[in-house]
Design brief:
14% strand; alpha/beta
């Protein structure tokens, strides 16, 4: 693998982050990690600037992992594995790069005179609360560094393990702006089992939304991806929005499936196996490009927003995240749930 040419999480032309002699490869003979290889590295940088041409609404990210055991067939980050000469299909799902020094690096970079306390987004490339986090436990140190500097941040996740760090999130929300969003694109269990096989079920993710809200952490839902012809009927969209509203989400923001190089090939292979009748419809809808046409995106967004209004929630609004107050004695928010990864089922 081309370790010396590894780029950062968001830009292929960036300098190497670590050298080959800093890599330790491990496997663990336990059921949850069987078939997965971990490449432990000491990164050279962990705060990464998003390219100017990006559509992302943030400028800085922290991603302690590369590759993701969630194994979502549509994941746009699959292309990043090709920078290491790793496979963007099964390799992305089972060859996980772990930046074991991420917490100490973040502390150092936040203390730099050049750092101006900008917002840091996490979970934007691969999930920082994927299964590997249960073993490596990098996020408590990362959150601790952000709390120490009162640095604003946001987290996007499909992982239930975020509940382990509930108290750290509460501490952060008392001193800075904290945004938490959970990704739930649909509630169809059959679709979930095939397209997101390594993730907690949609129900378990909505339990995360409910628990965070109950403990004073406002939580939005990124309804992503809405999958054309498989999860986009009015009935499916209504059912998903209703479940999101019942979980206590502060907002719901739809995002239609997009297929970047690397993800497109893997998703097309999945589609060929599971839904071959849809191949021509996808070719027509995407016309060889990354994004569905604007008219389709507007239709989905309009329906989701109508359903959200019906159930009393709305789209995300900048600055909507509030700081968590000190819990009163005897209040439910004063007793966080037991830590640990919830069942995938």
């Amino acid at each position: 693998m081309r370790w010396d040419n590894l780029t950062n999480d968001d830009e292929a032309a960036a300098p190497a982050l670590f050298a080959a002699d800093t890599v330790t490869t491990r496997t663990f003979d336990t059921p949850e990690f069987r078939g997965i290889t971990f490449h432990e590295i000491r990164a050279r940088s962990v705060v990464n600037r998003v390219p100017g041409a990006s559509r992302m609404p943030f400028e800085w990210t922290v991603n302690p992992y590369r590759g993701c055991t969630h194994a979502c067939v549509y994941c746009f980050a699959r292309k990043t594995h090709s920078y290491l000469d790793l496979d963007t299909g099964l390799g992305f799902d089972s060859q996980i790069v772990v930046k074991v020094n991420a917490p100490e690096l973040l502390r150092r970079e936040l203390a730099s005179r050049r750092w101006r306390g900008e917002h840091i987004a996490m979970g934007t490339n691969v999930d920082c609360y994927q299964r590997a986090e249960g073993r490596y436990q990098l996020m408590p140190g990362i959150l601790g560094a952000l709390v120490e500097r009162a640095n604003p941040f946001s987290i996007l996740t499909k992982g239930t393990l975020i509940l382990r760090d509930l108290e750290l999130l509460r501490q952060a929300a008392r001193v800075t702006d904290v945004g938490v969003s959970v990704s739930v694109g649909f509630t169809d269990r059959e679709l979930w089992r095939t397209v997101e096989p390594g993730t907690p079920s949609p129900e378990r993710r909505l339990d995360v939304v409910r628990t965070l809200s109950d403990h004073g952490i406002p939580c939005g839902v990124l309804m992503a991806p809405v999958i054309p012809f498989l999860g986009d009927s009015p009935e499916q969209l209504r059912a998903t929005v209703r479940a999101i509203a019942e979980a206590g989400a502060t907002s719901v923001t739809p995002l239609v499936l997009h297929l970047r190089p690397g993800a497109r090939e893997w998703f097309t292979a999945w589609l060929t196996h599971h839904h071959p009748r849809l191949l021509r419809r996808y070719d027509a809808l995407y016309e060889g490009g990354t994004y569905a046409p604007k008219w389709y995106q507007r239709r989905i967004t309009g329906m989701v927003h109508d359903f959200a209004a019906e159930y009393g929630i709305g789209p995300y609004k900048a600055g909507a995240h509030r700081k968590v107050p000190e819990p009163e004695a005897g209040s439910p928010s004063g007793s966080p749930p037991e830590p640990g990864q919830l069942s995938l089922l």
